[in-house]
């Protein structure tokens, strides 16, 4: 009996060690390749960047040199359109969820829908934007009837809404109740207290949240393939097809030319730097508690 | 503000209407058979499925107006399931390590790395896969699999490119790992400390504490996290498009070329040749939309069932 117990004790200890070992091993198996990917991207990207990358447009296929300046400009235009749509609507929705509608069934339903919308594949957004703007030819929808920067921007903008909405809400919920109560105790109407006290207090968090959403859609490719389409030349017009960094990465990665591969790696590094900046900023702001001196 | 919030409902409704309207033509022409084998004799499909030398039936023929989404549904399912098989055990292991075992110094950086990797665009994973993963599979992994497991029929050497379902599965696994593990971590941290203490007080080892005190209480949420990862894998477009091979074929071999629902849209939507072709692609998009909505809703409900009370985080 006593011996049996001893064996069982032994087995439990062994199981414990094995489980710990497996957890450590899986952590290693996850983190090592991920870090390897990351380092490889930075290494390949850094060796591909030069001044021409930021100032020139791509050379014809097969010729060496050239850059992705038109893609950077194009991504800027697309993201500008997207931000004009995504950020105001997203912030508005977030304020409603956190302040005016808090705890109501409607707010819960909207929060749920936003989360679900967040999971809808980006390619579906592209198909919807195509069916809405690129395909029909009418005078109600601006720039409709052909591939355009506008349609790509709309697709990206719609994708920003749920992300911005949820981070705004999250940041607003971090504002202590005492701050709201103090404002209300002074006789300030609720809307005023929300706009000039709560939102203002949370604004660093909201801004970084927008940056994160911005950085995420900056790398979106799928919705742009058949809306913005891509462009070999300089173009900043909303009415015409436009180049975009992620789109060029996709096309160049599958091309047979080493020079275009080099451009693709460079473009990837630019996107990664943008994302690292946004993610670290969010962590920094959220870690500081958003509200220095408020609590 | 209310209007902004309501616009989210509006967007979902708008997308749904656009997709339904756009896919009317295919729906009228093929009905439900669009997603099954349709007019293709089942025996041909099975023959092509098991024998790599047999000719593949004409599932998808834009020139002759013949469309069946079967190979794409198959490709999406196979690559997603492969991805889950690889990602889930690792993700749970990582989450267990981070919440229960990790020294405090490491926790911050590790969480940061996983968060960062969840934010890297899929086209960049695709780029990496094309230049690193695919050659790796072609030179080392695939020959090894063919040699050791070739007898199962799941691995044969008919496709020497290194592209295919398995490569797509691997890159998908890498991409969904951070999402699954961060949600699992969230669910596990929502388990009250008193649970852990109670189990430890009974004399349990650390692993027994994790198994009985944490994993058992968090299992619904973990299932939710896995389903959410599945949702991501089903709709993932760019990385899969770049490595899956893009042929409308159904093979038993995991090393064969194929296509997924998202990849066929990405490849053909911009230059569809006819109204019917457009409509068929839109219907695939609609199917993807409906499936991901259901999958995501289910996953959210499961995760909420566990973390209710704790503040929800946007992912």
Per the principal axes of the C-alpha atoms, what is the gross shape of chain A? globular
Rounded to the nearest angstrom, the radius of gyration of chain B is 22 Å
| CATH homologous superfamily heading of chain B | MetI-like
Output mean pLDDT of chain A: 87
Considering residues with a beta carbon less than 8 A from a beta carbon on another chain, report the largest interface and each chain's count: A-B, 98 and 89 residues
* Mean pLDDT over the full residue set of chain B: 88
**Given the C-alpha coordinates, what overall shape of chain B results?**
globular
Q: Let me know the largest β-sheet of chain B.
A: 2 strands, antiparallel
Strand order of the largest sheet of chain B: 1-2
- Tell me the number of structural domains of chain A: 2
How large is the share of residues in beta strands of chain A? under 5%
The CATH class of the largest domain in chain A, by name, is Mainly Alpha
Q: Return residue spans of chain B where pLDDT drops below 50 for at least 5 consecutive residues.
A: 311-315
Give the number of domains of chain B: 1
Sheet-strand content of chain B, in percent, reads: under 5%
For the sheet with most strands of chain A, the description reads: none
Number of distinct helices of chain B: 12
Structural class of the secondary elements of chain A?
mainly alpha
| CATH fold descriptor of chain B | MetI-like fold
